[in-house]
Amino acid sequence: MVDQTPRGLGFFAYLACFRGIVWREVLRFLHQRERFFSALVRPLVWLFIFAAGFRQVLGVSIIPPYQTYVLYETFITPGLIAMILLFNAMQSSLSMVYDRETGAMRTLLVSPFPRSFLLLSKLIGSVAVALLQAYAFLAVCYFWEIEPPFIGYFTVAPAIILAGLMLGAMALFISSVIRQLENFAGVMNFVIFPMFFASSALYPLWRIRESSPLLYEICKVNPFTYAVELIRFALYGQVGPRLSDGSIDLTNLYVVIGYTVFFLGAAVYAYNPSKGLIARRGGPGARAS
User: Per residue in 140-166, pLDDT tens?
Assistant: First the structure.
């Protein structure tokens, strides 16, 4: 087995590699203006068109973290932020497939740096881009009179980062099983839309439980649901709902962290040249037989 331990690579070498990968992701985003606008079009369509039509149909009762009745567009804002993170993660997965076959990531995957470090750097770069997109969307929401407490603009950042890490790690794992770019559109439809609609992004969970107990159970195991709820509470300066004994329910936080560790571990395993899916298909870094 080939020794994958880097030799002669100190802290500054790792720092330079990390900065290069993250900065490359940010520059790619800044140079692709259509990517920025396309990332905002989907949630803005839901906010301006669908929310206006559903406002009179879907009532939202007073549920945490809201202290009073809220308009439907206020309720779906956290779900639309999570939508931005989800689409950005899948788009990053697409670039990963391309880079793995023809671009810079192919070179990096055969470099002496550990693959776990390379994948984590790629993931952090993707999350940095998603954070910019999410705050651009919140700025539009502010002018649409969707205004969370001022502190919420700061407390939501860690929630967005955690949710982005979870969805990005999931997308990295998906990129390990995509062989051709042509298959990506089908995978996106298979992953994105079920995750988005079978969650609390568009409707409260209590309403889903009343209409379909089966769908409610599906929503409860959907990691996207916990990402939405984590962002929802963070927008109001909270981590989770307060229980009857005065303690705070940290389920959303724990589940998001747990799924992040699981998906990231699966992605690292899949890209491992001695064990993972990439090597089994004869991809970059695979050993010669």
Answer: 999 888 889 999 999 999 999 999 999
49-86 pLDDT tens trace: 887 777 665 656 678 888 888 888 889 999 999 999 99
- CA 197 – CA 248 distance, rounded (Å): 27
Whole-number pLDDT of residue 7: 56
Confidence at 1, pLDDT banded by 50, 70, 90: very low
Q: What whole-number distance in Å separates Cα of residue 283 and Cα of residue 289?
A: 13
Q: pLDDT by residue (tens digit) across 102-114?
A: 666 666 666 777 8
Cα radius of gyration (the chain): 20
Instruction: Tell which wins on pLDDT, 262 or 281.
Output: 262
Report d(CA 26, CA 32) in Å as an integer: 10
| Dist CA 49 CA 51 (whole Å) | 6
HEC secondary structure over the chain: CCCCCCCCCCHHHHHHHHHHHHHHHHHHHHHCHHHHHHHHHHHHHHHHHHHHHHCCCCCCCCCCCCCCCCCHHHHHHHHHHHHHHHHHHHHHHHHHHHHHHCCHHHHHHCCCCCHHHHHHHHHHHHHHHHHHHHHHHHHHHHHCCCCCCCCHHHHHHHHHHHHHHHHHHHHHHHHHHCCCHHHHHHHHHHHHHHHHHCCCCCCCHHHHHHHCHHHHHHHHHCHHHHHHHHHHHHCCCCCCCECCCCCECCHHHHHHHHHHHHHHHHHHHHCCCCCCHHHHCCCCCCCCC
